[in-house]
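User: Hey, quick favor. My workstation is busy. Could you predict this chain's structure for me?
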Amino acid sequence: SEPVLPDPWVRGRDLLAMGLPEGPRIGHWLQKAYNWQLEGRYPDREALRESLRQTLRRHGEIDG
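Assistant: No problem, here it is.
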């Protein structure tokens, strides 16, 4: 049987709340965040979200 993938820790609404504008970048970052989650890079949802927020800032995707 197929392995059951976990629910994503980060959803589109989370990215919008961080200040990322609607558009194709949402899908790009959702995929990245999910890959990081599946790779086990972060112990929990909050750690992943915080790192993602910092990454978005560094890339100039969000302000501040």
